[in-house]
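Reopening this ticket.

The earlier resolution said the output was attached, but the attachment link was broken on my side. Pasting everything inline this time so it's all in one place.
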Amino acid sequence: MLKNNPNNLKTNTKTSNPLPPKENSSNFRSTSKFVSRKPRSSNEDFDQIILEIKRVTRVTGGGKKLSFRAAILLGNHRDKIGFGIAKGSDVPQAIEKAKKEAMKNIITIPIKNDTIPFAVSGKYCASKVLLKPAKAGKGIIAGGVLRDIIKMTNIKNITTKILGGSHNVVNNTRAFLLAISKLNTNQNKENKINNEKGDTQNKNNFKENDNIEQYADKQSEVTI
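Inline output:
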């Protein structure tokens, strides 16, 4: 009886709650595309090499405090490298700190014809490193930590030599970076010298033009 009663059907349709309208999926994506986006890391273009990990101790009044020291080298296999060293309570923390420190110390290597422009040397403590350019096809002549560093760059032909008797990885790396920094300073000096030469030539040309104009004016006055 209740099924066939039209009044009951009307009341049921009025009291029933309608379903909420479906949200447009395209609108939903457009409003939320910036919500769950992961931030890009600043070292995504750099590869890292763990040069050294050591356990170090610090003696305090309460006893010995153990920690780990990590030395990390970053490179983009082109013309930029960075070196960082840091300590942490465990190995992953030390590596993360050293990586952040290396990102702050990124330097650019001037590369010319797949090698360095000229020979340089660097000295740090007891470590001394000599870098020389090489002809095409010579390859990378280096050993120890220097070979690992050069492989992180785009240098294909170079000759290196560790002159000091030290085999300390950190000191040899810093000596290499000091030698590379000399390439940048000398290149900046050459650029300044070239700019100064260009400025002096422009000044001389300007003076010559002024003299020619003054001479032309005098000639015109004489003819008048």
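Reporter confirms the inline version is readable. DSSP finds five helices and eight strands in the chain. Residues 128 and 164 are 5 Å apart (CA to CA).
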